[in-house]
Amino acid sequence: MMNDYMDYYSYINNLNQMPNSNEMMNLNQMINPNQMMNNNQNKVKKSSSTNKNNGLAEPYQGFTRGNMFDNLYDEYKNYRPQELNPTNDKEYAMLLMQMYGFAAHDLGLYLDVNPNDTNAIRQRAEYIRMYNEALAQYENSFGPITQNSVMLEATPWAWDTKKWPWEGNR
Amino acid sequence: MWKYEKSLQYPINIKKKNPKLAKIIVTQYGGSQGELAAALRYLNQRYTMPDEKGRALLTDIGTEELNHVEMVSSIIYQLTKDATPEEMKAAGWEGHYAEHNTALYPTDANGVPFTITYISTTGDPVADIMEDMAAEQKARAVYENLIDLTDDPDVIGPLLWLRQREIVHFNLFRELYEDYKKKGYDQKK
């Protein structure tokens, strides 16, 4: 059930030396662009083209499976990760935020124990930029995510006017 | 310090009420291998880590575990939202209803309340990190047991995701463990 991960970190550390391979092509093909709302296709494609690290998932794939690292990914039985299908712009904006936030976070954990990996640092910084962009987009359209939001400069106080994250759709 | 973000780490939208499922999934909130124990374990151990790697990793994974506490809590909340006393009873969860109605309360799947004796801190970084590796493996195993017992895809999705995080964390802890063994941090220097 569990793979052997012994060589995982050496693999990650050697990413710099690895040329682009077919593996990357396969990764790109595994991301289904139809998951994303049509009016945001360009943004998603842009996000895909920025990832040059072989062995790292694209943000959508990494996020849905909960693991940015190909070598580390371990499927349970024949279960596939849940596809996330936003049904409106709000859910889509939230997905982008969660997706880039997760991609940056997972690389951040890796960097805690591998602090000299320049490639991972650059990639993480790029995801943080995308996260910040997605955050601003969400907040401007749908309300504050954090109390730093400029949306909280208006009256009435908007912090408690929206659904809380745990409420779901039911 | 921590600041709140009005967002789950991974989305949870459960369409079907199912208190029977909540009754078992609650163990990943308040059980011995649950997310609350994980968060408290790492956030207590981080202070006595010998270097920046350990302090950073335990802080950041401990923080992520708080996100997971919120995710598991959201699953339980959505599965029991608007559940009637009859529905709670039919699910075999009338004990919970008697004590808490449908409010959140950290217990294991048998109703045993959370206890801090689920975690330990030793002041020995190698021993602590070894505990953390075991904790991630045990939490993974419990997620697999729960997935086996679940037939709602809205619930299986988040459970699979949380299981995957245990695998990522386990490997990070193992990397740190091997580094600390090499540096002799278990030798009381």
Helix and strand layout, with pairings?
The complex is a heterodimer of chains A (170) and B (189).
Chain A: H1 8-13, H2 22-30, H3 41-49, H4 59-65, H5 89-113, H6 118-142
Chain B: H1 19-25, H2 27-30, H3 35-45, H4 52-80, H5 85-90, H6 94-100, H7 125-148, H8 153-183
Describe the structure.
The complex is a heterodimer of chains A (170) and B (189). With 170 residues, chain A is an all-alpha fold. Chain A has a domain at 52-78 and 87-170. Helix content of chain A is 48%, strand content 0%. Chain A has six helices and no strands. Chain A has helices at residues 8-13, 22-30, 41-49, 59-65, 89-113, 118-142. Chain A is globular, with a radius of gyration of 18 Å. The two termini of chain A are 35 Å apart. Residues 1-39 and 41-50 of chain A have low confidence and may be disordered. With 189 residues, chain B is mostly helical. Chain B has one domain: Ferritin, core subunit, four-helix bundle (Ferritin). In chain B, α1 runs antiparallel to α4 and α4 (52-80) packs antiparallel against α8. The relative contact order of chain B is 0.19.
